[in-house]
Amino acid sequence: MTRSSSSSSFTKYAEELHKLRVAKAKLAEAQDSLAALEEAVMHALDRRQSVEKMEMEIAKVISKEFALHDGPFVKGLDEALQSFKEQYFGGVFVGNHIHKTLQVMIIII
Predict the structure, then answer these.
(1) Which of 62, 39, 31, 58 is nearest to 47 (CA)?
(2) pTM over 0.85
(3) Which helix (DSSP H) or strand (DSSP E) does residue 47 occupy?
(4) Contacts of 67 (CB under 8 A, 6+ apart)
């Protein structure tokens, strides 16, 4: 073998070795990117599941119907509405004093 042919084969070997190292580096970079994407997808799925769970809980709360005996607020509201109903149908809200009170006054200065 001549010196130029051995030099030429060494150069080819060095070039192939460089290509191999570049390919390995790109492969490692691609694997890192893939791992990051997998982690992002898993995080998105977890968030989606938690959002779906919250939506189900909200739907349960919205679909609940409150009976008159459910709590102090509902009882108090029922009593107040019943009182207004009795006053209204009892004639308390009929008369000139109520009409004058409910009129909007326009004051021009």
Answers:
(1) 39
(2) no
(3) helix 3-63
(4) 74
Q: Are 62 and 55 in contact, with CB atoms under 8 Å apart?
A: no
What tokens does 82 get? 């019943």
Report the C-alpha gap between 62 and 48 in whole angstroms: 21
The pLDDT assigned to 97 comes to 67
Quote the distance between the C-alpha of residue 14 and its chain's center. Answer: 55
Which residues, 6+ apart, have CB-to-CB distance to 78 below 8 Å? Answer: 68
Q: Give the pLDDT confidence of 45-82 residue by residue, as tens digits.
A: 888 888 888 888 888 877 776 554 667 877 788 788 88
Mean pLDDT of the residues in the chain = 80
Under 8 Å between Cβ of 87 and 93? yes
Q: In this predicted structure, what is the pLDDT of residue 4?
A: 62
8-state DSSP, 95: S
In whole angstroms, give the CA distance from residue 18 to residue 100: 98
What's the chain's Rg over C-alpha atoms? 41
